[in-house]
Amino acid sequence: MKKTGLLLLLLVTAAAAQQADSTAPGGIIATNGNVPVARYQTPTSADLYCAGFISKERIPDAKYVSGGLQTPNTTKFTNGEMVYLSGGGYQQGQEFTIVRELRDVNEYEFFEGQRRLINNSGHPYSEVGRVRILDARNRNAVAEVEFSCDPINPGDVAVPFVEKAPIAFHPPVHLDRFVPPNGKLTGRILLGKDFDGTLGTGGKVYLNFGSNQGTKVGDYFRAVRPYNLDLKDPVDSLSFKASTSEDTQKNLPTFEAKRWTRTKGPNIHVADLPRRAVGEVVILTVSPTTSTGMIVFALEDIHPGDAVELDEQQ
């Protein structure tokens, strides 16, 4: 009887271990190649308040960081340190978000026309941290850094703090890699946070649509990539031009952007290949014309220029 119980325990343990091994890194439970089960990463408070944004209008810079307790020897300030704010009109206990207007020092385009689209959408800003006014009696107010995403620098702008609504937990869902277009709202990833061009789970992205198009905080969008985007990429397009055949293959295939008839060999139309889902994005903040999103699940690298489509599965 004891041997039977021990054998049963070993079988149960082995089954549990096998089930645990079936969960791949990144939250993918192995089902099949088309519809893996995706476990979404829920945004934290730091994700919400450090995401950054694109603003159609420039943020007024009348209130800004002018220094800190150890100025000029210290120029970067983090949690618990004191900073001075110029501009006037401060009151003790007020909270301010510290933001920074950004410029891309590399001026590199991840897709053709990216700079023009960003300029048409607005001005990119990072959210650097949050401060609370301790003393407003002097020309420069004294504030304590309550929370910093990055070190706060002199010249960073102070705007009144606005609390953001938390994003509700999303249960695991089936992600169809090859789902056809659903006719819902579509847009494009304009830019990655910190000008990153290769993004994964947890990465922040800025999108070219907002509340004017009906977008709300907490909406989910499927990131998709048609193969003709790879054809336009200066690096990825090289693979389409490389040899893809076997040495013994008589009729050699070619990849073409447009349909045309060949007299010899198969012609593969890149535009006819199915688009593939590469991940899911949740909306963290919206403005009338732009949105900030967080990648909550990625099957592969996500890039500026990738398309997104409203995904209403719950």
Could you characterize the architecture of this molecule?
The protein has three domains: 114 residues, M1 Pyruvate Kinase, Domain 3; 112 residues, no CATH class; 42 residues, no CATH class. Helix content is 14%, strand content 32%. The longest helix has 20 residues. The radius of gyration is 25 Å and the shape is elongated. The protein is built from five helices and 19 strands. The strands form four sheets. Strands 4, 5, 6, 7, 8, 9 and 10 form a seven-stranded antiparallel β-sheet that branches. Strands 12-13-18-17-14-19 form a six-stranded antiparallel barrel. A four-stranded antiparallel β-sheet has the order 1-2-3-11. The chain has 314 residues and is of the alpha+beta class. 26% of the residues are buried.
Question: Care to give the gist of this entry?
Answer:
By secondary structure, the protein is of the alpha+beta class. Helices cover 14% and strands 32% of the residues. Mean pLDDT is 85; it is low at 1-31.
Q: How many domains is the backbone divided into? A: 3
N→C terminal distance: 48 Å
| Helix-strand makeup class | alpha+beta
The ordered H/E elements are HEEEHEEEEHEEEEEEEHHEEEEE
Counting DSSP H or I runs of 4 or more residues, the number of helices is: 5
| Binned strand content | 25-35%
Question: Strand tally, please?
Answer: 19
- Which quaternary structure do these chains form? single chain
Q: Average pLDDT, to the nearest integer?
A: 85
Shape designation: elongated
The CATH architecture category of the largest domain equals Beta Barrel
CATH class placement of the largest domain = Mainly Beta
CATH fold-type name of the largest domain:
M1 Pyruvate Kinase, Domain 3
